[in-house]
Amino acid sequence: MTIVIAHRGASRAWPDNTLAAFAAAVALGADAVELDVRTTADGALVVHHDAHLGDGRALVDTVAARLPARVPLLADALEACSSLVVNIEIKNQPGEPGFDPSAGLADAVVAVLAGRVGPAGGSGVDRVLVSSFHLPTIDRVRVLAPALATAWLVVEPPPSWSAVLAERGHGALHPHHLAVTPALLDEAHRGGFVVNAWTLDDPARMAALCGAGLDGVCTNVPDVALRVLGRAPRG
Question: With contact defined as beta carbons under 8 Å apart, do 123 and 116 qualify?
Fold first, then answer.
């Protein structure tokens, strides 16, 4: 069954990566939420897609107390999404302010998740998927927390993608939806890998890929995706 992953929350209707967008995704009945995590000048983990704020300040040069109110801490975002699976994308891109080739942000994220409690009272790690475009970052997550699910984010998978996942122990591939084909899905499922496609908002394309066996659709319009899958949104 294809799951619906609300991209930065219900981000077509609400400001993305905000507590309001996450609450809306929960209310609609999405299966999961995708969010982006970065660090501030004082080491706080916050949820924000871009390396810069709207006023031009780099997040990595700004202390948490001076962030706009709409930018939540990772811990608060996790709490808002506690009933859903959460896909945490660690933002650590070469060329961006604060890029860390040693992938130290992975350590901080894993430390937050280590203390997280799931909705049934047990560990919450089985309800978290950590992804990144920066392969060494998710490699670091695997070293620190082998029980955490990890995914490699790509625009278009290289020919060796399945070998890379197998060698490094990652269970999922997150390609752009235009790179997803029935052949890629077949290869993934033969290898035991999950494919979650981003960012897919077109209902016809959703229907085609879900019919071909797509595991997860990451979308700005979770209500549309739910309807495509024959599931009425709750809200």
Answer: yes
3-state SS of the chain is CCEEEEECCCCCCCCCCCHHHHHHHHHHCCCEEEEEEEECCCCCEEECCCCECCCCCEHHHCCHHHCCCCCCEHHHHHHHCCCCEEEEEECCCCCCCCCCCCCHHHHHHHHHHHCCECCCCCECHHHEEEEECCHHHHHHHHHHCCCCEEEEECCCCCCCHHHHHHHHCCCEEECEHHHCCHHHHHHHHHCCCEEEEECCCCHHHHHHHHHCCCCEEEECCHHHHHHHCCCCCCC
Segment 118-127, tens digit of pLDDT? 544 444 567 8
Dihedrals phi, psi of 149, to nearest 5 degrees: -75, 140
Alpha-carbon gap, residue 233 to 78, rounded angstroms:
22
Q: What is the C-alpha separation between 136 and 132, in angstroms, rounded?
A: 9
Residue corresponding to tokens 């278009």: 156
* pTM (global) more than 0.90: yes
Which phi and psi (to 5°) does residue 219 adopt? -145, 150
What is the Cα–Cα distance from 57 to 54, expressed in whole angstroms?
7
Look up residue 72 and give its amino acid. P
Q: Which domains does the chain have, with CATH numbers?
A: 3-228 (3.20.20.190)
104/123: higher pLDDT: 104
